[in-house]
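Many introductory courses stop at the sequence. We go one step further.
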Amino acid sequence: MKLKSFLRTVLLWGIVVSPLAAGDQGPRTISITAQRFSFEPNEITVKKGEPVTLVIHSKDVSHGLAIEDLGVRTIVKKGQSAEVSFTPDTVGTFQGKCAHFCGSGHGSMTMTVHVTE
């Protein structure tokens, strides 16, 4: 586990994460591209209890991603990438949205996260 990710987890969640056991693959990484006015993919499915890292890339202007019910919130600057990690603890369908005003279509920039057993 990278030190930066470990410290971010401890600071954000106030928990200490034990090192991965031999054979564990670590968090599932999902790449998402943000551009006016969509996320690609705009729908993902993850498993309850499975650590996930979202890597969000911005192609054009600054964007954000907020999935409030999953504790996800990040901003990604124009032409850059940002990472946000979470472990869903509830099964369901959750709506995410752009968290940084990016133009006239900002309100329609959404994505869906399905959490399954």
